[in-house]
Amino acid sequence: MAKCAICEKGAHFGIAVSHSHRRSNKMWKSNVKAVRVKVNGGTRKMYVCTSCLKSGLVERA
Known about the structure:
With 61 residues, this protein is mostly beta strands. The chain has one domain (12-55). It has one helix and four strands; from the N terminus they run ββββα. It has one helix spanning 50-55; strands at residues 12-17, 23-28, 32-39, 42-49. It has a two-stranded antiparallel ribbon with strand order 1-2. Strands 3-4 form a two-stranded antiparallel ribbon. A hairpin with a 2-residue loop joins strand 3 and strand 4. The radius of gyration is 16 Å and the shape is elongated. It starts with 11 loop residues before the first strand and ends in a 6-residue tail after the last helix.
């Protein structure tokens, strides 16, 4: 699973509990995109979460 290159946000694991209280393993995936980014005057492809893109921490190429 991909991780954000800026904030290192990745997948979260836990237990989903149904209405009848049966428990099963669950994975919540973060919204991570492959994006071309400006880095040190050049462009590079990185995995970045959408919250970092929205907040302006990363500049798209």
